[in-house]
Amino acid sequence: MEDAVTAKDGLLPGGRDVPFAQIEATLARLVRDGRRRRGAPARALLATVIAVGVQERLTAAAEALEQLGDVGVRSILISEGTHTNPVARVTENSIAIAGLAPRYLNNAVAALRLSSLPAAVWWRGGSVEALDDLADLADRL
Fold it and tell me: What pLDDT is recorded for position 40?
């Protein structure tokens, strides 16, 4: 897959590639396994920050959002493309999806955000139609 998320993209290089349907189960397993290794209780998540845009502009966003994992934020990075079922890359508190078709963007965000907690969208470019759909899911743009 030409737009697959890989370590060379700079988005979550330490993550694991998983199908979209297995993201939540993989996140839960990574948190559980990390807690066992650290011998510490799991951190509570406080919000979701979603960075959406063109691939070239998401690398800087990924680096900035990596810092927020330590304060209990789930980060979602999505670049636009043509794929309807792309592979996702996940770490304990972050998800990266490369090449998602814009018409599926709001569905992906709705499925992955922490629905009972605040969500902020960081727009990094892309189709304006996708931004309009995301505005309904976000507490802040």
Answer: 55
